[in-house]
């Protein structure tokens, strides 16, 4: 399954790793906010869902860091969509 198919999957969990303030200013529909600074402490929450997890941020840098951290902590079905614009493009919303 490629990233576009994963993004289109209704079971996918979208995680915005930006700050709470950035999230409050606007976010991907249905996304949950787990700032990068909290991502390692909430890995079990993500593992428990058993759904694909797609990370994003503003430019893709923080989501890439979160991706590597979650992979190191054993989360297998995690993907980095990059920035918000990239995610909207994958979802055909822009």
From TrEMBL:
SUPFAM superfamilies: Rhodanese/Cell cycle control phosphatase
Start and end residues of each Rhodanese domain: 8-89
UniProt xrefs under InterPro entries: GlpE_sulfurtransferase, Rhodanese-like_dom, Rhodanese-like_dom_sf
PANTHER family membership: FAD-DEPENDENT OXIDOREDUCTASE (PTHR43031), PYRIDINE NUCLEOTIDE-DISULPHIDE OXIDOREDUCTASE (PTHR43031:SF1)
Protein name: Rhodanese-like domain-containing protein
């Amino acid at each position: 399954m490629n990233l576009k198919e994963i993004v289109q999957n209704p079971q996918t969990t979208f995680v915005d790793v930006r700050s709470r303030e950035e999230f409050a200013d606007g976010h991907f529909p249905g996304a949950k906010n787990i700032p990068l600074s909290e991502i390692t402490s909430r890995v079990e929450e993500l593992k428990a869902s058993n759904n694909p997890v797609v990370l994003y941020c503003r430019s893709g840098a923080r989501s890439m860091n979160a991706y590597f951290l979650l992979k190191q902590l054993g989360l297998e079905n995690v993907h980095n969509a990059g920035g918000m614009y990239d995610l909207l493009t994958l979802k055909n919303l822009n």
